[in-house]
Design goal:
This protein is an all-beta fold and 176 residues long. 2% of the residues lie in helices and 35% in strands. The chain has one helix and ten strands, in the order E-E-E-E-E-E-H-E-E-E-E. Strands 4-3-6-5 form a four-stranded mixed beta sheet, with no helix packed on it. A four-stranded antiparallel beta sheet has the order 8-7-9-10.
Length: 176
């Protein structure tokens, strides 16, 4: 923002002007030299000549928090970035029965503290071939409940109906 100059009489007193503003920065005081090494001390009394003062600025930084779900208490990653910079996403999270599709909102050109949440799409592909009884000899079976939640690689022992996935092949199994 602009700062008005002051006109004072010889031997008069100059007071500190209202602090200016600059997007993405915090005003860090007035200085008497362009190198910003000598802080100005106001009021300036007994002024005898023209004087110039330079504003010193510090670049704002913000916290970007990545979460797997909005309601998660713990963050996957927290990063501090400078105003206008980009955050770096963590490794894509995993969630049983869902495919990670990206992050929202965007975390480029950051201008405030930000919480970024993983976006998910429910997996429905494991049901697509459920009528195909072929189970190949290569690889490991993975078991799912009928909602698509992974139960791991150990065959369920509790009575019920489950899906057994082996590679691209899926079949329904019943445990009695």
């Amino acid at each position: 923002s602009s700062v008005e100059s002051q006109t004072i009489n010889h031997g008069g007193t100059a007071v500190a002007p209202t602090a200016p503003t600059k997007a993405g920065h915090t005003f860090a005081g007035w200085h008497t030299d362009e190198d910003l090494t000598i802080a100005a001390s106001f009021p300036v009394t007994n002024a005898t000549d023209d004087a110039e003062f330079w504003a010193k600025w510090t670049l704002n930084s913000y916290t970007v928090t990545f979460k797997a779900l909005e309601a998660d208490e713990e963050a996957l990653k927290t990063e501090t970035v400078n105003h206008g910079s980009n955050a770096t996403a963590p490794t894509a999270p995993t969630r049983a029965g869902y495919t990670f599709t990206g992050w929202s909102p965007a975390f480029t050109n950051v201008t405030s503290n930000l919480t970024v949440v993983a976006q998910w799409e429910e997996i429905t592909s494991i049901f697509a071939n459920r009528e195909n009884p072929k189970i190949g000899a290569i690889g490991v079976q993975t078991y799912y409940d009928l909602k698509g939640t992974s139960l791991g690689t150990t065959k369920p022992t509790a009575p019920g109906v489950y899906l057994e996935k082996h590679g691209k092949h899926v079949r329904r199994i019943a445990v009695r």
